[in-house]
Specification:
Blueprint (H helix, E strand, L loop, with lengths): L8 H13 L13 E5 L5 H8 L4 E6 L2 H13 L6 E5 L16 E6 L3 H5 L1 H13 L4 E12 L11 E8 L2 E7 L16
Parallel strand pairs: 1-2, 1-4, 2-3, 4-5
Antiparallel strand pairs: 5-7, 6-7
Length: 192
């Protein structure tokens, strides 16, 4: 519907608090070694927020040329060039993940256009991409998919969840790769 839909600060704060409660982020900001992927990144709001909270690096994936230009400007303005990789191209093509090490990503943000998530066939393509991302996700890593509130995403093989959280007109779906000892009630596991 729009090229970019920046996530409001209150929702961004709630999202990162949830990632902290799952043990993916340290509350003291000591998040050295934490790696992130921001897919359908737009101007990079979520990936840049992760970098500001201590992520070691972020790979941004965006197809829209104008959004990529703004993303590069944002990265340079914030002095994050050395911790950022921008891949311009289709997120669904999947080639962008070839430069990432297996099991190296702790958090992936997937924020496709809302129109894409409202269509069953397009939503299935996005969830297929999420399934293919299991190879780059660390054990216990989380993929957060953002959709309109009326969208319910299906389970994805290779992940627990999705757990969901609604914020106004948006819904966040949390998928987590299984932990070493999967126990639904243990700290660090998402609950549905």
């Amino acid at each position: 519907m729009q090229t970019t839909r920046p996530i409001i600060d209150r929702v961004k704060e709630a999202l990162f608090n949830r990632l902290t409660s799952l043990g993916l982020l340290q509350p003291d900001g000591d998040n050295e070694g934490w790696s992130v992927v921001d897919v359908f990144s737009g101007t990079g709001s979520l990936g840049l927020e992760a970098l500001s909270r201590g992520a070691a690096g972020c790979t941004f994936v965006e197809q829209d040329r104008a959004a990529v230009e703004l993303l590069h400007e944002n990265i340079e303005t914030l002095g994050l060039v050395d911790r950022s990789q921008v891949v311009q191209g289709s997120a669904l093509a999947g080639y962008w993940s070839a430069s990432l090490q297996p099991a190296s990503i702790q958090v992936a943000f997937v924020d496709p256009p809302y129109a894409m998530m409202l269509e069953h066939e397009d939503r299935a393509k996005v969830l297929d991409m999420v399934q293919q991302m299991t190879t780059i996700m660390e054990r216990g890593g989380v993929v957060v998919v953002r959709t309109p509130v009326e969208v319910s995403c299906e389970e994805v093989p290779g992940y627990d969840g999705p757990a969901t959280a609604d914020y106004g007109g948006m819904r966040l779906h949390f998928y987590q790769t299984p932990l070493d000892e999967p126990q639904a009630s243990s700290p660090g596991a998402i609950s549905q």
